[in-house]
Amino acid sequence: MSHELTTGPLWTGDYYNEGSGKEGLDKLKEECGVFGVFKHPDAASLSYYGLHALQHRGEESAGMCVSDGNEFHYHRGMGLVKEVFTKDLMQTLTGDISIGHVRYSTSGDSKLTNAQPLVFKYRDGDLAVATNGNIVNAPTIRRELEQGGSIFQTTSDTEVIAHLIARSPKGLVEAAKDAFQRIVGGYAFLIMTNDKLLVASDPHGLRPLTMGKLGDAYLFASETCALETIGAELIRDIEPGELLVLDADGLHEDRFDHHKHRKALCAMEYIYFARPDSDMNGANQHAARKRMGSRMAIESFVDADLVTGVPDSSISAAIGYAEQTGIPYELGMIKNKYTGRTFIQPSQELREQGVKMKLSAVRRVVEGKRVVMIDDSIVRGTTSRRIVNMLRDAGATEVHVRITSPPFKNPCFYGIDTPDSRELIASQLSVEEICREINADSLSFLSPDGLITSIQGDNQDDYKGGLCLACFDNDYPTRLDFGGEEKFGCSC
């Protein structure tokens, strides 16, 4: 097999190694993260730390809205949580009810007007909305609302839910139920008024949402790591189709959907998105990823000198592979966490010397060794090829790639930023062809059954282990009603 080093520009956007556009580095983008607090005097500070713990889910913008019972105090900005919220600003966000949001721009435009929470005035006072996910039929509903006189202020699909609520003659809770029954997709919603907080999960539970308590206060977060950060007790996951209403009388458990739907939590949460210290449906992410690596070793063993994982999401799986095989796990690659974005683009000479801002191979570890490289997924294949060639350039004699998910063949319509199928390498090439394309000595993917068993164990009462595997098997849990406007990613 020929092992020629593939060269080319290290960036395609306005910034060197930006990695944030669809033509940038081909790793999937986390969706968004939401965090809510009900009845805690320090709601803003709790939200700040909660959003900070969810920063990995969205690094483009952050926002927070706090109610003191009479009026909203809110702020949104582009950038990281620590950049958007200064100490002086935090002192202005007074109140005991709060919702917050961190966002990646995927479906909606990248601009401040789309940063969440979105805040509105309507007949019953103030309304703030934050969501993680995608409303598949939003284009159809939006056109209908515009024809009826609605004026949209953003390109975010989240605004659709606010218009549906505002136009309803019913009270807030019943109007929200009607709105949720109209929309199709994967979503986790936090909706706040001056004195109420509504919490909802889509009928299939595609997007994660958990509830915790801190003293008498209720808290809600996309991942349990955010609850752990502030010392809250985890109560439970929000159930698919559930609508919680929190007001002066406390917590009211209700539903907006009483039909029996298949449970379908996004499998990529386990494979890649969620933090290793988060739990979902009772399964810890680090432990699940270790089991994926172990199962990968059983399904596709290869003799080698060391195992290494692509940081950070594949380290747990690499440890599992190493433990199962007895091949030593080594830190063969290092991720630079402080790359940021820079306008200074490398000269041709520096490019030829291999400027590596985001990821570097540890030459003294991989030189002269047969390496098993564990990664979580292959999207376009360009990043995998760069990493394989980087390991070869550092002296690895063989590079065997093991992917702890099935081949990613289909776009996601529920909140993950993915290309269409024409740009997904696994939908165009066979495994053998992908292996040649990424310049690996061998390539294997985890089987669907292996993935499900690694996550859910042998107790699989739900269809496909209660997971959405549509990006692998084309079996979408909802109808796909785009109204002629098909789009991918997180519409929040």
From TrEMBL:
Protein's job: Catalyzes the formation of phosphoribosylamine from phosphoribosylpyrophosphate (PRPP) and glutamine.
Source organism per UniProt: Paenibacillus xylanivorans
Catalytic site: C32 (nucleophile)
Coiled coil: none
Protein name: Amidophosphoribosyltransferase
Residue numbers binding [4Fe-4S] cluster: C266, C412, C468, C471
Superkingdom of origin organism: Bacteria
Functional pathway: Purine metabolism; IMP biosynthesis via de novo pathway; N(1)-(5-phospho-D-ribosyl)glycinamide from 5-phospho-alpha-D-ribose 1-diphosphate: step 1/2
GO molecular function: 4 iron, 4 sulfur cluster binding; amidophosphoribosyltransferase activity; magnesium ion binding
Documented EC number(s): 2.4.2.14
Entries under HAMAP family matching the protein: PurF
UniProt keyword Glycosyltransferase present: yes
Gene behind the chain: purF
Catalysis performed (reactions): 5-phospho-beta-D-ribosylamine + L-glutamate + diphosphate = 5-phospho-alpha-D-ribose 1-diphosphate + L-glutamine + H2O
NCBIfam families attached to this UniProt entry: purF
Cofactor entry: Mg(2+); [4Fe-4S] cluster
Binding site for Mg(2+): S313, D375, D376
Keywords, in A-Z order: 4Fe-4S, Glutamine amidotransferase, Glycosyltransferase, Iron, Iron-sulfur, Magnesium, Metal-binding, Purine biosynthesis, Transferase
Residue ranges of domain Glutamine amidotransferase type-2 in the record: 32-249
Family: In the C-terminal section; belongs to the purine/pyrimidine phosphoribosyltransferase family.
Cofactor note: Binds 1 Mg(2+) ion per subunit.
Pfam families cross-referenced by the UniProt entry: GATase_7
